[in-house]
Every structure is written in C-alpha cells, then in structure tokens.
Design a protein that fits this description.
Rossmann fold; 10 helices; globular
Length: 292
C-alpha cells in the first residue's frame, strides 16, 4: 500500500514512519509540504496517488494558538480540509488527528454518578482556540470525505520532539523545585503506541471518529511523579492549581477519553499509560536502575 505521511518531521510523524515502514511510504515534513497551501497539497496527492494519507501536521502550541487564531485555523482546520478534498479526488483514505481539547472539561456522569471518559458521541465544547480549530477540522473532513479516520488522542509524548515527559526530565537535570498542576485529568499517550494503533485502524476499513489513547487516566502531577520515580530521580515536586498559572489558553479540567469504541472493533486496547511511560523512558535511556 502506498502511504503518504504529512508532518513527518514531528514526534508523531517520525513514529508513524516507522509503523508504516513495511509499506511504500513517503514522509513529507512541513518544509517539504505545507498543508495550509491548498495548491501544494492538491499537487502532492495527485502526483503520489497514495492509497492512504496520514496527516500528522498540526499547530499544537495550545497557548500560541490563542495569539494566532488564523494560523491555528489554517493548520488545524483548513489543512485537513485540503487533504480531504485532495483524497476525494484520488480515491485515497485520510487519517487525521484531533484532540481531547475539543471537550469542555465537565466530566460526563457514569454509573453511580462517577465521572466517565468522553465517548465519540459526546458533544464537543472547546474552550480554546486550539480546541475550536481542531473541532472545525473534524467537521470539514466529515463533510468532505466519507473514507476518513478522525483519531482523537491526548497528552502525547514521544522520544523525539518537545513534550511533557522530556520537559520533566530536563527539569530534573536542572535541579530545583518543580511544580505541576494536579487539577487537570486526562489520558496520557505515547506516540509509539499511538502510531501502532493508527496502522491497525488504517487498514481496518472502519471509517469515522475514534478515540485512541493509552489506558488509564492521570493528572499532569501524576505523570510527573511517575516520570521521576521511573527515572530514579529525587525531585522536589509539589502540586499547584491551574488558576495559579498565567496561561493564555484555558484547559479542560477533565478530558479523559473513553476508548470502548476502538477496543470493541478490535483496535487495542493500548497498554496502560504507566507501562507506556516506562517503555518511553527506556527508549530515551532515562529509566533509573531497578525502577519499575
């Protein structure tokens, strides 16, 4: 199968290249293909005529999107739309990524009134420019191309690129106290596991919107605590409230993704986030002696 991966220079794009390495795969970085350029997208897809396009290109700086809403819309809404239009002309299938930040942060009520994860059928209510641009991209792809996979995922970290896990390791190296918010709960996910699941989804023939994330939920504080424990690092870690941070973009307090739909159609379950984190630290060469 011929596969085109856009955004191939990012942390997810690099792992997707490895996941699809046994296919006839072409990876294009942002410098090679800017997905916000409609003419360039149309030309690239028409020339390559891939059976599958996997779009890992996006504007992911949540706070930066607040100051550049037009740029966020171009990358996260128009980019997927241009790809969907090009795929419709060539008969290609499109995988594109969305986010837990399309949800509003009020936990849905599960059995007995306990909070549950968001499903694919819960209404979106994004709080930020980033979330709104991603929700717009979802809508445009659905309206344009029937053979699509919209993959919502969350709190992504990989061995390459900028992400929370690598930031925590850098702060541990720097020494000094570390403060991390403990009032945002989500679904930590590694790019390695996500890419493998996307490969399985892409050849399933089951189109639509699906949540793919590592199992389990955590706060950012929980993840930081696990990073330091698994890395065998002694760090002065204390929790803080989101309200103490001067951030332009609001974050949902609860954005856990329910992955039942993916699991029941044979995609996953992905490993628990703690197991995935341990393997990520192994990949980074950062796991401490004897740490589990």
């Amino acid at each position: 199968m011929k596969v085109l991966i856009t955004g191939a220079g990012g942390q997810l794009g690099l792992d997707l290249l490895e996941a699809f390495a046994d296919h006839d795969t072409v990876g294009l970085t942002r410098a090679q293909l800017d997905v916000t350029d409609e003419a360039a997208v149309a030309e690239a897809v028409a020339a390559l005529r891939p059976a599958l396009v996997v779009n890992a290109a996006a504007a992911t700086d949540v706070d930066g999107c607040e100051s550049d809403p037009e740029g966020a819309h171009r990358a996260n809404a128009l980019g997927p739309w241009w790809l969907a239009r090009a795929c419709e002309r060539t008969g290609s299938t499109l995988v594109t990524f969305s986010t837990d930040y399309v949800f509003g942060g009020t936990a849905p009520s599960g059995p007995g009134g306990s909070p549950r994860g968001y499903t694919e059928h819960d209404p979106v209510a994004p709080l930020s420019v980033y979330g709104r641009s991603k929700a717009a991209g979802e809508h445009l792809v659905r309206e344009t191309l029937s053979e699509h996979h919209i993959v919502r995922t969350a709190w992504v970290s990989g061995a390459r690129g900028r992400n929370f896990v690598r930031t925590m390791l850098r702060l541990a190296d720097a020494g000094g106290p570390v403060r991390v918010v403990d009032d945002q709960t989500g679904s930590p996910t590694t790019t390695r596991d996500l890419a493998a699941a996307v490969r399985a989804l892409a050849v399933s023939g089951r189109h639509g919107t699906v949540h793919l994330a590592n199992e389990g939920s955590a706060t950012w504080f929980d993840v930081a605590e696990a990073v330091f424990a698994l890395a065998g690092r002694q760090v002065d870690l204390t929790p803080q409230r989101s309200s103490t941070l001067d951030r332009p973009a609001p974050r949902p307090a609860w954005s856990v993704l329910d992955t039942t739909h993916a699991r029941t159609m044979g995609i996953g379950p992905l490993p628990h986030w703690r197991d995935a984190l341990g393997r990520l630290l192994d990949e980074l060469g950062a796991r401490g002696p004897g740490a589990r």
